[in-house]
Write a structure and sequence with these properties.
Strand content: under 5%
Largest sheet: none
Shape: elongated
Helix content: over 70%
Radius of gyration: 18 Å
Number of strands: 0
Distance between the termini: 19 Å
Length: about 150
């Protein structure tokens, strides 16, 4: 496992995030109808088209891909530049993820935080939490990267 991340971002990015992504990957395969309906709070689960099911399954597959890429990158490299660039890519993706969620939700549902369902909390709340940790890491608020372990030949 990469040992250059300080403890807080290391836990968040290498443990919490992959587990969250795996949970997000499983959800559409358990019930694509529920997964689609829960994207915006207040919609009842109803039958979906084959196209909508395909999109839900593909999104689940992408979540699984993201978990595997994160694990592959962060558990195999000790190169600070690789880790930093990976975190920057995630940081940019966080902005897009929250922006699209907010754009598609109507304003009343967006500002009614008490009415958010678990998927909305994941799409906005958890993503903003991850974004905050990434921002703090990128600005060095958790301290400097640790030195990679030296290889003994």
């Amino acid at each position: 496992m990469t040992s250059i991340l300080p403890p807080v971002p290391k836990f968040v990015i290498t443990v919490f995030e992959p587990l969250s992504l795996i949970a997000g990957a499983v959800a559409p395969f358990v019930s694509p109808e529920w997964f689609v309906a829960e994207q915006i709070p207040g919609f009842a689960t109803q039958p979906i088209t084959a196209q909508t099911a395909m999109v839900a399954y593909q999104l689940g597959n992408i979540y699984l891909l993201l978990a595997m890429v994160g694990i592959a990158v962060l558990y195999t490299t000790t190169e600070p530049k690789v880790v930093r660039n990976y975190v920057i890519a995630l940081w940019i993706a966080d902005i897009g993820h929250v922006a699209v969620t907010c754009w598609v939700m109507d304003y009343e549902k967006l500002v009614n935080v008490a009415g958010w369902n678990p998927l909305t909390w994941g799409n906005i709340g958890v993503t903003l939490g991850l974004f905050s940790v990434r921002t703090a890491y990128l600005f060095g608020l958790f301290g400097p990267d640790r030195k990679p372990p030296s290889k003994i030949l």
